[in-house]
Model the fold of this input.
Amino acid sequence: MAEKIVEVKNLVKRYKELIALDNFNMEIEKGEVFGLLGPNGSGKTTTINCILSLLNYNNGEIKVFGEKMKNDRYDIKKKIGIVMQNVAVFDELNVYENIDYFCGLYIQDKQTRKQYVEDAIKFVGLENFTKFKPKKLSGGLLRRLNIACGIAHKPELIIMDEPTVAVDPQSRNKILEGITELNKNGATIIYTSHYMEEVEQICTHILIMDKGKNVAEGTSDELKRSIKNTENVIVDIKKLDDRHVEAIGKLNHVYDVKYMSDRLMIKCAGGRHNISHVIDYFAQNSIDYDRIYSELPTLNDVFLEITGTSLRDQEA
Amino acid sequence: MIVFKTFFKVLKEYKVSLIMYLSITIAVICILSSVGSGGNTAYSSISQGLVIVDNDRSEVSKGLISYLGNVNTILEGDYTSDQITDMLYYTRISNYLVIPEGFGAAFLEGKTSNLKVESTKNAGARMGYSVETEMESYFRLTSGYLKGGYSFAEADSFARESLANTDDVQIVAENKVADEKVFVVFQYLPYGILTLLLSAIFPVLLRFGSSLLSKRTGISSYPAYKKQTMLTLASATTTGIFTVFLIIIASSLSGEAFSDRWWLIIIDVLVLAVTVAMTIVALSNFRIKPEAASGITNLVSLSFCFLGGIFVPLEYIGNTAKAIGQFLPTYWYSEAMQRIKNGSGFGDIVNCLLIQLMFGIMILVIGLLVGKHNVKKAE
Done:
């Protein structure tokens, strides 16, 4: 059985009347890239803050590296690195000085620290920018500096809170490659993001939380298998009467049909030849279409099916 | 030590504003101390404008007019009473003198008891009195020589010679100027202490205390108490360095050091510096953005200096401002300076020092409570 790095049991956190975490449970094993997903306000950041002892909680238990986590457990904190969503660096210090400072909060020995800082700079590819102040860096480089500050002390557990927000595709790829490499080097990673394709690409285990609860977890494939939707048939078609949309909705295994912007989206639950049934229907009714294809559900479909499609920021 | 070292690395980035405030402080001290001390080391009488009507035309009246004419400017001509009033009001002349008929004869006969030159002056102006003092001195000396058996011509000559002798006055004047300078220079020093410490320590503490950086440090294995200790140590070191630097500059400008009263002044300066440092630490707990530090530096330093009697002497401050000023450490710094100037010892200024420290402790406690409240609120 793999070593448990983080164990959260029946965690409850209340902000006056609002229950942010409602008997929340989570276990993270060594070597995982653990994706923590959820809509805005679902409790992801509260969970992370509780794990880091930045927040007191009302009930439950948190263990990190098998030990009960407390604010003064500096031995545990030494093994944790955090890459925050907002870039948190000193504007007055250059790239090297910033990484050196944050590494220095963990590593006292100068020689070791020097080596670690240089490794971190190399790891994020900021070798040519060591003397640059943060204000002189582009958004992507700034994110990389933020990551370097979080991982320079070579932590065993790295928490990354949306590290790729507002980053161009090139920098994003570089960051994702880096995360995979950190994981290969032995680090366990907790990763939160709203970019589902990223999570699908790098996470070995995914937990979806909503309204402070653990609503689903497993690997990407396990999650996809757990939902009703097994196949999406998509048809690019210029014109389609409502009666045909209604009829297609009544085909075997079809449970949802939407026609909008010249595209017909057919969601199927089970069945092996769903696309053939749709093609047959068009042939029988002499309906012309441009293109028809079938897709397996993505993590985005899983997420939306589990958490719903209503806008969470607008909910009270 | 990483927090301690980083404090100074961040501080280094504020060197431009530090140099600016240091230059302003030195300029203010130099300008105001030269205004305050007058800059002269020798006494010289000031020439006044006079209008004299001589109804006597005697040897004595001519001698008096001649003497007054040597040290003042006598305006010739006939003037109406309105013109005289205007000239007095606009201080073109300090006195309008009328020498009555028979004045000279009565003076030579020694009948001086009811003898008087009519002098009209602007009651609110100091210069009119100095001309009257010059006349009195001239008559007193001349009459003394006449009583000694000298002729009026001889008495007039000796009297002028005596009145021209300013050696004794010069020595007293030099001592007086030196006395004033040390107080004038150190009186303006709080502006330097406030601006330099605020512009150095305040933005750095605000940067370390900004929510994101504070969170990142809080997550680390670096204990919070250690971070606070290092920041306090760095702030204290900065306070010490800047205060000693300012004391050296002020002592050089005043030309006085290591005298008994200089030590008392230094104690006053050090107590104020500690109080200012405590105030800065307290302010840094009030979730202020580092970008606002410059504005707050000006607001705090100027209000403390104006209300505390640093720029304007305490006796010229209005009652309301004075009442507010009494709650500020700079007021008690000025009060202690005043007492030292009047010759008081340590025992007489100790309550002023304690009030300054109490202000610092009180505001520090408030600041720490606000900081604690902010942490709880964040949870």
